[in-house]
Each structure stands twice: as C-alpha cells, then as structure tokens.
C-alpha cells in the first residue's frame, strides 16, 4: 500500500505541476469529471442490477449489499487497509466453511447478500481529486446503493475515515439522524488529527458535528487521550472502556437502539478485538474484546440496522494463513444476518 499511496501522491503532484503551467485547468477538471461520472455509473448500474434481482425474487424487506471502499491514505500509521476489500471477499467465499450464518441465513441467497463492487478510490485520486470531492463520491456511491430498495449498504474498508461519508449518506438518504454502535479500540473523535480533518482518527468528530447521529455508543475503547474523553463529553458520546467491560457486559449484550430515529448504523473496527483474535490490524492494542463478545453484542442488539461498515483490517499485517481475513469475513457474515430480513 505504501507504493500505491506514493503513486497517487506522485500523480497528484504531476497534475498540480501541469495546472500551474500552460495546461488549461478546464482540461484537468473535465478529465476528473469523466472519471468520477464513470465510477458512479459503474456503482449505479451494478446496484440497479442487484436491486432488480432481489425485487424479482421477492420477500425481502431489507437486503445487504457489499460496497468496497479501498481507501488507506487517511491512516495515521499504515496504509494497508486499502487492500482489505478483496481479501475479505475472498475469505467470505473461500470454501473453508459453509455459507450459512449462525442464525441460519443463507449467504448464497441474493435476498440476503449481494455485492456492487468497489469505489475505485486510487483511480480517482490518480486524477488529482482531493479528499473533499472523494468523500462526496463515497457518499454518492452509498446513496446509489440505497436508491435500489431493499438494498442496504455494508461497506468494506479501508481505514476508518470512510465512516464519515458513509454515515452522512445513510443519514441524508433516510432523512434524519441514526444511532451508531461503534466498536473500536479508539474513539476516533479527534477534532483534527495531525492536521487532517479526514483522518481515520477524526471520523466521528465529523459525524457528530454534522448532526448525522443522535446517539453514539463506543465499545471496546482502551486507547484514549484526554482530548478523546473531552470530545466525547462535548458530543454526549457514551464511551464504554475495556477497563470496565466486566461491569458493563450485561448492558452491552442487551442493547436496544434506534427508537425515535431513522435506524441504527454499526461501525466495526477490527482492532476492537484483542490482537490474539485479530492480529492483522495497523494499530495493535492488547486487552480488547473477544470474538464471541463482539458477536454477542451484535446478535443480541435490538435494532433496525440500516447500514454498517467493517474497517481497519490490514492484510499486510495478517498472520497464520489469513486468520484476520477470516475474522473480518465472519463479522461481515453475521452483520449481513443482522441487516437482511
């Protein structure tokens, strides 16, 4: 990913240099527009196809559709999460386990799970598109999925910066705020981390500032600074730290969310898990949740889940024959069960 990220920066610098010479700005802008339009058209047509299929089969009130967002450049440490979406897909369908979820839903049924592919993040960045526009493209892509009732987005990251444009899209499309269940080792609520307002460490500050969430519950926290706690108090965030998990376990395994809002969004950072269960992450934080802790929270949650993301899996740090990829795939499977109905 380091090479991929550097490649994007290299092309951006070349485009900026071209723009400052005799190359008309309109030429670059028109080229960017064509790439963006083509990218959105591809997502739109895939979503239409999958939506038509699900509607033709009938019987689905809500159907999960995967959307990959291979973005890693807003990570403060390693950019490997950009490689995650294809590795997660490979693990979902690798054949080492069956395609039935723990609650009995069959992933081979398109009414349960479809896939609309990836937002071509690197190709868009190679055209010199900045992060403001890139975040808008991600939001537009999510809305295109939601246009095709009954599809609901389950987004494969990518670093955690993607949660801001995804939640923004879900909230705007539904016409109001959602409740968010956020599982993570970190609160990701810095006002502006290392000068980057779109840092993966600032995504939930942008979400709360925008009014896209009514309640934000953060579970699994064990790496938090004074600013993280102060920001949590500022926005009324309910932060559940691992040091008190034994006390909070019963409440967290019996959550009821979403009353009075447009639904519930689940954001699942793989590093919420103890690294014994998921070593393939950029920021290894010992003392996290067990895999079964996470599944108990998800399975027992009483909510209408309208969207979700699984982020921060870093294939470049995975070990033991893709163990973390299989963990991420299992989480995607069980989130699919929670969304589809």
Summarize the model shown.
This protein has 341 residues and is an alpha/beta fold.
Task: Describe what you observe in this structure.
Its cofactor is Mn(2+). This is arginase. One of its GO terms (biological process) is putrescine biosynthetic process from arginine, via agmatine. By secondary structure, the chain is an alpha/beta fold. The chain has an 8-stranded parallel β-sheet with strand order 2-1-3-8-7-4-5-6, sandwiched between helices. 43% of the residues lie in helices and 15% in strands. It has a single domain (15-339), classed as Arginase, Chain A (3-Layer(aba) Sandwich), CATH 3.40.800. The longest helix is centred in the first third of the chain and has 33 residues, at 25-57.
- Helix vs. strand class: alpha/beta
Q: Average pLDDT value?
A: 94
Overall spatial form: globular
Quick one: CATH class?
Alpha Beta
Intertermini distance: 37 Å
Keywords:
single chain; 341 residues; alpha/beta; Arginase, Chain A; eight-stranded parallel β-sheet; 15% strand; globular; disordered N terminus; hydrolase; manganese
Topology, please?
Layout: H1 2-19, H2 25-57, E1 63-69, H3 84-92, E2 113-118, H4 121-126, H5 131-147, E3 151-157, H6 163-174, E4 178-183, H7 203-209, E5 213-221, H8 226-235, E6 238-241, H9 245-252, E7 264-269, H10 291-300, E8 305-311, H11 323-339
Parallel strand pairs: 1-2, 1-3, 3-8, 4-5, 4-7, 5-6, 7-8
Catalytic activity: L-arginine + H2O = urea + L-ornithine
InterPro entries: Ureohydrolase, Ureohydrolase_dom_sf, Ureohydrolase_Mn_BS
Family: Belongs to the arginase family. Agmatinase subfamily.
């Amino acid at each position: 990913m380091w090479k991929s990220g550097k490649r994007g920066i290299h092309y951006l610098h070349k485009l900026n240099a071209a723009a400052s010479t005799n190359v008309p700005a309109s030429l670059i802008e028109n080229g960017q527009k064509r790439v963006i339009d083509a990218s959105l058209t591809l997502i739109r047509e895939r979503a239409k196809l999958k939506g038509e299929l699900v509607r033709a089969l009938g019987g689905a009130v809500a159907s999960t559709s995967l959307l990959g967002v291979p973005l890693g450049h807003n990570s403060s440490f390693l950019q490997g999460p950009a490689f995650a979406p294809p590795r997660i897909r490979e693990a979902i369908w690798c054949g080492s386990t069956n395609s039935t979820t723990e609650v009995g839903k069959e992933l081979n049924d398109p009414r349960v799970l479809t896939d609309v592919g990836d937002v071509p993040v690197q190709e868009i960045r190679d055209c010199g598109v900045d992060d403001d526009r890139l975040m808008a493209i991600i939001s537009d892509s999510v809305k295109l999925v939601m246009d095709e009732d009954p599809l609901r987005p389950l987004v494969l990251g990518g670093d955690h910066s993607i949660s801001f444009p995804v939640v923004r899209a879900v909230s705007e499309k539904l016409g109001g705020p959602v409740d968010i269940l956020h599982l993570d080792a970190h609160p990701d609520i810095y006002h502006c981390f290392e000068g980057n307002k779109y840092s993966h460490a600032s995504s939930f500050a942008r979400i709360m500032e925008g009014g896209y969430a009514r309640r934000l519950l953060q579970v699994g926290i064990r790496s938090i600074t004074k600013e993280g706690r102060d920001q949590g108090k500022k926005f009324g965030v309910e932060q559940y730290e691992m040091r008190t998990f034994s006390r909070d376990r019963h409440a967290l395994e019996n959550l009821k969310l979403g009353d009075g809002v447009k639904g519930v969004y689940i954001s699942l950072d793989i590093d919420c898990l103890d690294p014994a269960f998921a070593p393939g992450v950029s920021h290894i934080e010992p003392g996290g949740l067990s895999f079964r802790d996470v599944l108990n929270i998800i399975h027992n949650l009483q909510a209408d889940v309208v969207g979700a993301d699984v982020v921060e899996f870093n294939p470049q740090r995975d070990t033991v024959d893709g163990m973390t990829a299989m963990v991420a795939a299992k989480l995607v499977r069980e989130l699919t069960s929670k969304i589809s109905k």
